[in-house]
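Revision sheet: structure tokens.
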Amino acid sequence: MELTARRPAVGLAVLFTVALTTITTETLPMGLLPQMSDGLGASQDRIGWLVGGYSLVIIVITMPLATMTARLDRRRLLVLIMGLFAVGNALLAIAPNYPTALLARLVTASGHGVLWSAMAGYAASLVTRDKAGRAVAVVFAGNSAALTAGVPLGTLLGQAAGWRTGFAVLSGLSALLLVAARILLPEQSASPAPSGLRGALRLPSVRIVTAATALVMLGQFTLHTYLVPYLGDADQSGGATTVALFVFGAAGILGVWAAGLLADRGTGRYLLVTLGLHAAAIAVLPATGGAVTVAVIAVWGLAYAALPTLLQTFALKTAPHAVAAASTLFIIAFNLGITAGSTLGGQTLRLLGPGPLPVAAALPVLAAAATIAVGLHRARKPPRPAHARQTGAATGDPAAARQRA
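Predicted:
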């Protein structure tokens, strides 16, 4: 049985579960640091590199691997990558030492970026063009579901039955998704042009989205990575910290749902509003306390969760003939921002303490908003009429001549 155009919900459900599984795989070590440290005989900061190193592999390998697999059918690519996740998670579950665990993470990370670079375009292809934003939102809802439910449940399972059990379950789920994708997803050919990435970078809209994505993630993870120590400094109640973290994730699900509704109605303006809301929520955190802090974090979580969908949809709509390349650049910028944000936040925390983290985080988000605003302004600017360019050249007008060039 194969998915048909009349049943896109089945395919989107598969892609949602793939998203949930891959993001849970990427981030689960963060919830099991002590257990994995004891089990592998490595310090917690080295275990942390099972996440940081994962992100670096995505940055380095995604672009060349996406070019190499450009002619591969998207369904076959997804099946192969879920096979990598099944093998990598199984290897991690039985890893006797840290080097083996690191190798297992490299196996899964090698396919992660390529998978996500193809997911948005694949999801959009399952529905009509006017519903593409909602389809992309379904995929990114798996991201929020992983952070809100997948990682907490995996952490609880790891604490109760051993950390290896969590990765064994992820390995089994990856294998099931491999079979489901082969049966339920349709074939879809990718763009055959191996130079698509270079061509995409020549498009102003793609450059703008790539830069804005990196800036958003830089700001987000400057604070998000160290949210627990920041909240511990701002509010000594451990219970409030736990509630705030849960509210951030739960609000994220609402944010993805809202982004799906808005993405097809005018992505640019909603993207600007959401960026402003994101920056404002982070910036006012130092002036809040108690329940107000939790409320502001809810707004922050809602805005942040909506941004990947809005950014990705903006890229797809402004570069419809470079979907795969734009998605590849998006995922590279996404992970580059995560790595840079974690580094900036760590240095800020070490040198200045947790207090300045919100300010350091809000500035890159404001820069992302300015980048999108400039891009939208240029897009609205009408092109100079051809007869005016010719007149300028004929009269020797230097400004017109430069415009003509």
